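Q: Can I see a sequence and its folded structure?
A: Here is a first one.
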Amino acid sequence: MRGVSSEQIRPVLLPGEVAPDFDLPALIGGAKKRFHLRERIAKTNVVLAFYPANWETVSARQMAEYQEQRERAEVVAISVDSIMNTTVWEREIGPLDLTLCSDFWPHGEVSRAYGVFRETSPLAGASERAVFVVDRKGKIAFSRIYGLLELPSFSELLEALRRV
């Protein structure tokens, strides 16, 4: 994401606010590519699923559920781990047909822009486990932060998508 400085850290984005655009390295169906939010929302509503870290049990369960439900929603998962770390992790738990983005450099820039970067322990330097639904107009339609050990409800995401 270009143009967001660390001084612009803000509270979590709420429904009705404009979703910050970003361009991140990603694994898309297992292949290394770039993911640009504006290009994708021009075609469909998108679920942005921030998760704290690769190699973490709840994150693996979360991605497995998104993989199972991939026909029902466009999910883009985002962590602050490097794309190389994400590649190895995806091979371990996958294969996944999801988009897995790396918010590694500048570290946590996208997480900060969405208000979900963890500045304090536990897991300082990671993102919260948080979900946003971004509509085709680029607005946040749903946002929620979950507990670090809480698995987000997929039915809740589907309900949010139905309301868009």
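Q: Show me another, different protein.
A: A second, unrelated one:
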Amino acid sequence: MKALLGDYPVTREFKRKSSLQFADVKVPNTAFKRVVRELEFDVAELAIVTFLLAKAHGKPLRLLPAVVTARFQHPLLVSAKGLKPADLEGKRVGQRSYSVTTAAWMRGILAEDYGVNLDRVKWVTFEEPHVAEFRDPPNVERAAPGKDMMAMLLSGELDAGIVGEAPKDERLKPVIPDPAAAAEAWQKKNRAIQINHMVTAQSHVTKAQADEIYAGLLESRKAAGNPQMNPFGVEENRRNLEVAIDCVHRQRMIPRRFTVDELFT
């Protein structure tokens, strides 16, 4: 079987021992379109929001209960203009794509914890959605070809931006004050972590095959020391997935709230 899976502490031992044919892709998210459009991989790492959109549009994918990446997104909304969340309505805010998971989590944080009306922000994107059937809302515009989000942030062409990694340029400051404390408060309030990527399998992968893959991943996680930000198991992830589903549904990106259990079928 063909697989897409990044190199992480929790996957290292699995990739060393598994007989799956792993694609030579250094950054898995660059191949997520191939996962959901071409259905190229039998087993694949996939961002949770991309998976939920794929599920909503009938793609033959299901989750395996293995979180390979997770983080709190609070430091990743930045500005060179000293903005705070309350300043964002009416402003131009960049993001790689409207439907990427980091952006969806960040918009949820802004709406739920800071009262930002997301419909009053002008979102500027640089890539199309991974799921071809998804349509951006009307307050989203595409940056001109060749434009760079970081350059636009520093020039003032964008007021703020949701970035993939904390920027090294000191002119770009987090929009959320004390993001570490804000993340801690979010976790306490929601009793969850913010999942980024989980493992998925196509529907033709049998239960026995999926169980064997999951068992190998579980052993690999144990070899990595069972890190807390990589929860494995349906019940261990039930609350995390409930919060992710709610975040995406409240932004009208999926037509209904999936149950957690149906994500695994």
